[in-house]
Write a structure and sequence with these properties.
alpha+beta, single chain, 19% strand, seven-stranded antiparallel sheet, 736 residues
């Protein structure tokens, strides 16, 4: 089938076809960027009706079958009672009618809802309409969009549709807009349209100029496809239309105050003809590192298939940096994942409970029977014969569950790919179900490096970017796709972190490294705090010791046979307490070791625009935040800290659904003063010597970009007092 000649003023995709505009014939192509064009409605994919109905019908039918299951089972087991055939037939008929009516109601509701659900692209914002009786219209300004994610279940992936989640910077009650049942081409078009418009407007273009530029770019693509077909058929190609003068460069008068995010380093401030906005020059496509694993081939095959109704792929921009997971990284990510570890612990607990339930099945009724059975178990070695098979069974069951979890996690991370595309970072993964996450660079709140104990031993870590979490507009609970951190590498060597950050986000490549340790007294305070005051093992030992003392204080007559039997049971009871005592002692030792590990890793660092905090026990977490992303900062002390001359550092960012506060306990007072000087408003302040925190000098940077006349600065008074707690509190309030 031959392509048709492009039509004029075609700036938006056809709603029912592929998201790229379909060329039309018979009209000489023309572009009038300044012409007023009506907003085109884009409806959802028709799977919204039939697949959505099936998703609703399945739980409804299950609920009906469960409610009527007992009656059907009794009829099958006992038969229909004599004389009740008519009543039973009537009940079955009514049930069938109810099921049919429910199905019809759901299907009709989805059909009507489909007619009242659509989205549009206006010059300034994305609009989403839905609702039959209670109508809603969601306005999403392009410049407020922080990320656009996609998620598809296994069935949706086969069909070629997904759910698109648009997240905005909305604060603590941030709401995400979910557009369900969008085919893959439409999802890619939504992502390209919103992000390109957003970047153009931040660079100073008016909304109308951004719209006209996209219309011209789409028209150029149509002309290229049409000319390619004409040349293959021996025809005469048509001449492309040059970019209109109104969108060649942004006007200074058109720049809005919303464009204060600044131009990303390496991104051109204007858009030249023949280029795609948001492309970072300097990295050739053949220089992109390539990594992969055995599951990438089937995952890439599934991506290329795009499903039954996926449509043609839409170019969303040039990729300048990309990487995947090697076989070892994929396996270690699954092996050390939180889900597998927690599931293994849960399995051990369930197995222990089952073992106790098995012992309870002996149905000992009297105290004499319990004592006799306990004594017999000890002397006849019956107890080891019961315990050893249970332990072996538990370990085997844990191993089987762990292997299943390993396979599931590997399938989940199959096809993992993280990349830099224009001014945003994208991550996608999944073999059966597919997840895509994309976030604009200016919406990244922090860089987070997490190390579990096993990762610390072998020198690996997990790299993530802090982001604003959100909840869906139809739910009050957080979704997995809207967590506060977007993992860009689940298992990477610690020495390779800077390389990954440089490739994905060169804007964060010069983040501060934590080089200022906590106060020496923090070690003693951590041992007391973690091992005693907040320690579970210590207080468990106290309770068990009290129980042993109470047993030892019982006065029993050894010449009395009844008391002797009781002493045997008492000895067994004390043996059980001994095991618990040993377990509590182990827990206390683990908590003390955790306190020492915290002291060894706890540190922070400051430079001209970054704050980095490292803290944690067996799992350490390093968070680096830009100064302009910190909502407020402050310090906090209690009487014991003031006596030890230490301070708690606090810095809050917008990451997460309600923001997140990073804390570092027991830093020196001089370091706290340096932190408050760095964070206080009224001009940028830079730490002059980060390696000598005791001196804590600061150098103030001039707020104006115009060089000041050379002059000798007035020296600060030598007797300037250190900031008092009241001053710190007022600074904290100002930062809010």
């Amino acid at each position: 089938m031959s392509p048709v000649q492009p039509a004029p003023q075609q700036s938006a995709p056809q709603a029912e076809a592929t998201p790229s505009p379909a060329p039309q014939s018979g009209v000489q192509p023309d572009v009038q960027p300044g012409a007023s064009q009506p907003e085109e409605r884009f409806t959802l994919h028709h799977s919204y009706i039939w697949l959505g109905s099936v998703q609703i019908l399945i739980p409804v039918l299950i609920a009906i079958m469960v409610s009527l299951g007992g009656s059907f089972i009794s009829v099958i087991a006992e038969g229909i009672p004599t004389g009740e055939d008519a009543e039973m037939a009537l009940a079955l008929g009514i049930t069938a009618v109810v099921i049919i009516l429910v199905m019809a109601f759901i299907i009709v509701g989805r059909i009507i809802g489909y007619k009242f659900t659509w989205y549009t692209f206006s010059p300034r914002e994305f609009n989403f309409y839905k609702g039959i009786i209670f109508k809603s219209r969601t306005h999403i300004p392009y410049q407020r969009v922080q990320s656009i994610d996609q998620k598809a279940t296994f069935i949706q992936r086969l069909i070629g549709v997904c759910s698109v989640t648009i997240e905005t910077a909305g604060g603590s009650s941030n709401k995400a807009t979910v557009i369900p049942f969008v085919d893959k081409s439409a999802a890619e078009y939504i992502r390209r349209e919103i992000f390109v418009r957003k970047q153009l407007m931040e660079q100073g273009y008016t909304p109308e100029q951004a719209r006209d530029y996209l219309a011209w770019q789409t028209y150029q693509q149509q002309v290229a496809e049409y000319n390619q077909w004409q040349l293959s058929q021996g025809g005469v190609p048509i001449q492309p239309v040059p970019m209109p003068a109104s969108v060649l460069s942004p006007s200074a008068s058109d720049r809005s105050s919303d464009a204060t995010y600044g131009t990303t380093p390496g991104v051109a401030s204007g858009v030249n003809p023949g280029t795609t906005p948001g492309v970072i020059p300097g990295v050739a496509p053949d220089a992109i590192p390539t990594t992969g694993n055995v599951l990438d081939a089937p995952a890439n095959f599934a991506n290329d298939m795009r499903g039954i109704f996926g449509g043609a792929e839409i170019n969303t921009g040039q990729v300048t940096y990309s990487y995947g997971l090697t076989n070892s990284q994929l396996f270690l990510s699954a092996l050390c994942g939180k889900s597998s570890t927690l599931m293994a612990i849960f399995t051990v607990i369930i197995t222990a409970v089952s073992f106790l339930g098995t012992l309870a099945d002996f149905n000992f009724l009297t105290e004499d029977d319990i004592i006799a059975a306990a004594v017999s178990a000890v002397h006849s070695e019956l107890l080891p014969a019961l315990v050893i098979p249970m332990i072996v069974s538990a370990l085997g069951f844990v191993l089987i569950v762990w292997v299943i979890l390993l396979i599931g996690t590997c399938i989940q991370y199959a096809g993992f790919n993280a990349r830099r595309r224009g001014s945003r970072v994208e991550v996608e993964y999944g073999l059966f179900s597919h997840t895509f996450k994309g976030i604009d660079i200016d919406r990244i709140q922090s860089v987070e490096i997490t190390q579990t104990l096993f990762q610390r031993l072998i020198g690996y870590c997990t790299l993530a970017y802090g982001r604003l979490g959100s909840v869906t507009s139809d739910s009050s609970t957080s979704d997995d796709a809207a967590l506060s951190a977007m993992i860009v590498h689940p298992f990477i060597k610690k020495s390779k972190v800077d390389e990954i950050i440089q490739g994905l986000t060169p804007e964060f490549a010069d983040y501060a490294h934590p080089d200022t340790r906590v106060a020496p007294v923090a070690r003693r305070r951590a041992l007391i705090r973690e091992g005693i005051v907040q320690g579970f093992g210590f207080w468990a030992l106290v309770v068990l010791t009290i129980a042993l003392i109470q047993i030892g204080l019982l006065a029993l007559d050894l010449s009395n046979p009844a008391h002797v039997d009781y002493l045997v049971a008492q000895a067994l009871y004390m043996g059980a307490l001994g095991y618990l005592y040993a377990l509590a002692l182990i827990i206390m030792i683990v908590e003390f070791i955790g306190a020492l590990l915290w002291y060894k890793s706890a540190a922070f660092g400051l430079d001209y625009k970054y704050l980095t905090i490292t803290s944690g026990h067996y799992t350490t977490r390093t968070v680096s935040m830009m100064r302009n992303k910190i909502q407020y900062g402050g310090t906090k002390t209690n009487p014991l800290q003031r006596r030890a001359k230490t301070v708690t550092l606090m810095a809050r960012s917008a990451a997460g659904t309600g923001g997140s506060t990073e804390r570092l306990i027991d830093i020196r007072q001089a370091d706290a003063e340096r932190w408050m000087d760095w964070i206080q408003p009224g001009g940028n302040k830079v730490c002059a010597d980060a390696t000598t925190p005791e001196v804590a000098p600061t150098v103030e940077v001039a707020a104006s970009l115009t060089p000041a006349p050379e002059a000798t600065p007035a020296p600060a008074p030598e007797a300037a007092p250190a900031p008092a707690p009241e001053a710190a509190a007022s600074t904290d309030t100002e930062m809010r």
